[in-house]
Amino acid sequence: METSLPLIGRDAEMRCFTTLLGWVAPDRAAVLLVDGPPDSGRARLLRECAAEGRRLGAAVAVTRERVVVVRDHAGPVDAYAPGGLVASAPVLIVATSAAGLENVPAEVHRIRLGPLSPADVRRLLAHALPGTRPGPRLLDLTRVAAGRPGAVVRLIAGLREEGLLRIVDGSAVPLPGRLPDRTRARLAGRFAALSPAARHLVQAATALPSPFPPARLAALLGSTVLGLLPAIEEALDSGLLTAAGEALSFSHDLVRPVVEAAMPCAVVAALRSERGARPRPAAARRGPRPAVSREADWSALSGREMEIAELVGQALTNRQIADRVGLSPHTVNYHLRQIFQKLGLASRVELVSSLRRREAAAMR
Asked: What are the boundaries of the region Disordered (predicted)?
């Protein structure tokens, strides 16, 4: 089913491919490494690159992890030993792993496949369910896929195979509170594949109502957000948890029972009890928020924090900042919270205003 659907939401990645294919030349090869979490569509992107290369008249060789595209070349191409062609032909290698390419003289580029936008998920559903429209309940259920096209396609296939999808007045409506067995099994497999630290973190998250701040999860585990950062990033990469603004959340409420199914019943009962004990509202624990100081103490920031603050001042998004400084968006988000706390700010708008005042003061 997946291969019969059009490639959706990967226009920027395909433009990167065609740009590099036009750039390569003899003795100027390129490797495009495609990264991304499970079900993000890495293998599908490789197939699309192979098809586009053939459409453009290039010679193409394919393996499971690699596509070798050679322009202006009529002879055979060995996908397992592409380095021999680099000196004489324009070679572009698209791969999901750098293994076996260490000795290929080429300029390396990297892309990471992120989640599809809600609009792209709707487009994918429209193609997967032709002649119907996705109802609000189905759109909500696709959150379990965390924006990953492969997971969306498998979810729809499972709903149809198990009779969990109904067509009501032209609208596709899933039965409430049900996940296909194949989706539950895949989620359980991702949970089992986590490192012990990340698995413990996801288990602890079942004790918190979604969404929840990372600091609260850290307090529950007796750690700090910085100390939990690798486990948080691994949990996010698994798709079990997602980032909801500055908070974390299970990708869907139906993911929580999948995690709980792998835990002892007594532990699940205790965690549910903790989740039901709602804390007092923040306003009852703290006084009114102090007014923001107009003179922020910039010396309190580390070099990395100062760099990120200045990039915020250039109107870059967290994703753009992450690409610029070589960090993950989740780490950039953590640094931003540290910046806000150290400077006594509450938002990006206040941070930009404070940066402008700082720049104006420096020019006096």
From this structure: 277-296
Top CATH class, 298-363: mainly alpha
Per residue in 108-145, pLDDT (tens digit) is 999 999 999 999 999 999 999 999 988 899 999 999 99
- Listed as own residue / partner, the contacts of 114-117 with beta carbons closer than 8 Å and 24 or more positions apart are 114/36, 114/40, 114/147, 114/319, 115/40, 115/146, 115/147, 115/148, 116/8, 116/9, 116/147, 116/148, 116/149, 116/152, 117/9, 117/147
Q: Specify the pTM.
A: 0.70
Residue 136 CA to residue 133 CA, distance in Å, equals: 10
Query: Is the distance from CB of 1 to CB of 153 less than 8 angstroms?
Result: yes
- Asked whether the beta carbons of 334 and 327 are under 8 A apart, the reply is no
What are phi and psi for residue 56, nearest 5 degrees? -85, 5
The CATH classification of domain 185-276, taken from the options 1.10.10, 1.25.40, 3.30.750, 1.25.10: 1.10.10
